[in-house]
C-alpha cells in the first residue's frame, strides 16, 4: 500500500518537470509558422474593398452635404421674385355708364358663355330661309346655302372664341394666385425647405406650366377657326366675282349683239314727235 505522503511528493515533482518542459526552448522550437497564399490574398482584397467603400461613403456624404446647402446661404432669393406682376384685365360689365346694351357679352368675355346667348343677343339675326329656298332654282339655292353656311360658321366660331376667352381669363386669374403662392415658397430663405420641398415646388411649377400650355393650345385653336371662317368668306366673295366675269365672257357676245340690234331697231323706228 502506497504511502499518502509519498504519493503527494511524486505528484508535485511530476508537475514541476512538466512545467519546465513546456517553458523550455525545446518546446518553443516545436511551433511551426504556416503561410497560406490564398488566405493572405483574400485578406488583402478584403482590406482594399473596405478602404474603397469607406472612401466612396465619405465622398457621398460630402456631396450630400453640399447638395443640402440652399442658395439662400449665399445670396438673397428675393431678387428672383417679380414685383408688381401684370394682372389680368377684365371687362367692367357691372358699370352701367360704360356698357348699356352689351353687358352680358362683356360678362361672357370675363367668365365664358358656352351657349352663346350673350353673343346672339347682340348679333343681327338671320331670317328663316327654309321656305324661300324651296322656291329658288338650283344655282340660286346653292348660292344662298353657301352664304348661310358662312354665317353659321362665323357664329359658331365667335361663340366658341368668346367662351374660350372668358374661361382663359377666369382660370388665368386663378393661376396667377397659385403662381404668387409658389413664388413665396420659392424665395423662402428658411432652412426648413428641404430637398423634398424643393421637388414639390418644381412639380407645382411644372403643373402650372402644363395648364398654361393647354390654355394656349385652346386659344390658338380658336384663332385658327377665326382664320378659317375669314378664308371661307373671302373665297366665296372671289368665287362670286369670278362667276360674274365668266358669265360676262360667255354671254358677252350675244348680249352685245342683242344690245346692238335693239339699239338699231330703236333708231330705225324712232320718229320725231
What would you note in describing this structure?
With 273 residues, the chain is an all-alpha fold. It has a domain of 164 residues. Helix content is 73%, strand content 0%. Helix 4 crosses helix 7 and helix 7 packs antiparallel against helix 8.
**SS element count, helices:** 8
Average of per-residue pLDDT values: 78
Unreliable spans: 1-7, 20-28
**Based on helices, strands and strand pairing, what is the structural class?**
mainly alpha
Largest sheet: none
What is the general shape? elongated
Q: Tell how many strands the DSSP assignment holds.
A: 0
Task: Report the radius of gyration as a whole number of Å.
Answer: 50 Å
What is the string of SSEs from the N terminus onward? HHHHHHHH
- End-to-end separation in angstroms reads 198 Å
Identify the notable features of this structure and list them briefly.
mainly alpha, 273 residues
Briefly summarize what is shown.
By secondary structure, the chain is mostly helical. It contains eight helices and no strands.
Please write out the topology.
Elements: H1 4-23, H2 25-28, H3 37-68, H4 103-111, H5 117-122, H6 130-133, H7 138-186, H8 195-268
Amino acid at each position: 500500500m502506497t504511502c499518502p505522503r509519498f504519493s503527494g511528493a511524486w505528484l508535485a515533482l511530476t508537475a514541476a518537470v512538466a512545467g519546465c518542459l513546456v517553458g523550455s526552448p525545446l518546446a518553443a522550437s516545436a511551433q511551426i509558422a504556416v503561410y497560406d497564399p490564398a488566405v493572405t490574398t483574400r485578406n488583402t482584397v478584403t482590406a482594399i474593398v473596405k478602404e474603397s467603400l469607406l472612401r466612396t461613403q465619405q465622398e457621398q456624404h460630402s456631396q450630400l452635404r453640399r447638395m443640402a446647402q440652399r442658395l439662400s446661404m449665399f445670396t438673397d432669393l428675393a431678387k428672383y421674385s417679380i414685383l408688381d406682376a401684370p394682372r389680368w384685365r377684365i371687362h367692367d360689365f357691372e358699370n352701367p355708364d360704360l356698357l348699356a346694351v352689351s353687358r352680358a357679352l362683356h360678362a361672357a368675355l370675363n367668365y365664358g358663355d358656352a351657349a352663346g346667348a350673350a353673343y346672339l343677343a347682340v348679333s343681327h339675326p338671320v331670317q328663316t330661309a327654309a321656305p324661300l329656298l324651296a322656291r329658288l332654282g338650283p344655282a340660286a339655292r346653292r348660292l344662298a346655302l353657301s352664304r348661310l353656311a358662312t354665317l353659321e360658321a362665323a357664329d359658331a366660331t365667335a361663340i366658341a372664341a368668346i367662351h374660350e376667352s372668358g374661361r382663359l381669363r377666369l382660370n388665368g386669374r386663378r393661376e396667377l394666385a397659385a403662381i404668387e403662392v409658389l413664388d413665396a415658397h420659392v424665395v423662402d430663405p428658411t432652412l426648413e425647405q428641404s430637398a423634398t420641398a424643393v421637388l414639390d415646388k418644381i412639380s407645382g411649377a411644372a403643373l402650372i406650366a402644363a395648364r398654361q400650355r393647354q390654355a394656349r393650345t385652346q386659344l390658338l385653336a380658336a384663332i385658327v377657326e377665326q382664320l378659317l371662317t375669314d378664308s371661307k368668306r373671302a373665297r366665296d366673295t372671289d368665287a362670286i366675282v369670278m362667276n360674274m366675269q365668266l358669265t360676262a365672257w360667255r354671254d358677252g357676245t350675244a348680249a352685245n349683239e342683242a344690245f346692238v340690234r335693239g339699239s338699231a331697231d330703236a333708231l330705225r323706228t324712232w320718229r320725231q314727235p
